[in-house]
Write a structure and sequence with these properties.
The protein is an all-alpha fold. Helix content is 72%, strand content 0%. The longest helix is centred in the N-terminal third of the chain and has 89 residues.
């Protein structure tokens, strides 16, 4: 064999070894691509399931919103009717039965002097009416005890003070202070 033939065989062997290296690297990359393709297909399937769940959740949310709006509309309608009834009752002239027969002529004079259609219930009249009802419902013994009680009387409740109490109901809860030293004090 000549030297040229040996050199050619040696070059061919080197080229075959290089081709095997490239083939091995290409096989590794193709395997990684196949694995990522499987992972990508799984991620797409998971995303599709999540989209279906979100779509179902939105449909449920729409249905709940529709139900809540219908219920709220019914409650608003009932509140409007009740407010109209209350307004009608407040705008009616105040008719109170006389406590005794002796006061009947006084009540007749008051009714004769003021026309019924022009008289509206004022806040002061409402407060006096509430006071009268409270006094009438209490027994005489409790009023005798109240005279003996040395404690000061509680401030009179008015519609405005009741409104302030109702407003307090809608404010958020206040976090109480935590007992013990704070972290920064250490």
């Amino acid at each position: 064999m000549s030297l040229v033939a040996v050199a050619m065989n040696g070059l061919l062997a080197v080229l075959l070894i290089v081709a095997l290296g490239f083939g091995w690297r290409l096989e590794r990359r193709l395997k990684a691509l196949r694995d990522s393709h499987v992972g990508f297909a799984k991620a797409v399937a998971d995303l599709d399931q999540a989209a279906a769940r979100a779509e179902q959740g939105l449909a449920d949310l729409r249905a709940a919103t529709d139900e809540a709006s219908e219920a709220l509309a019914d409650r608003i309608e009932r509140a409007t009717v009740l407010a109209a009834k209350l307004d009608e009752r407040l705008n009616r002239p105040m008719v109170t039965p006389p406590p005794a027969a002796a006061s009947a002529p006084v009540a007749a004079r008051v009714e004769a002097s003021e026309p019924k259609a022009d008289r509206r219930l004022k806040a002061e009249d409402f407060e006096r009416l509430l006071d009268r009802e409270a006094k009438a419902s209490r027994p005489i013994e409790s009023s005798a005890r109240a005279n003996l009680d040395p404690r000061p009387s509680v401030a009179k409740e008015t519609p405005r003070s009741r409104a302030r109490v109702d407003d307090d109901l809608f404010e958020g809860p206040v976090d109480p202070p935590r007992p013990g030293p704070s972290f920064r004090a250490r």
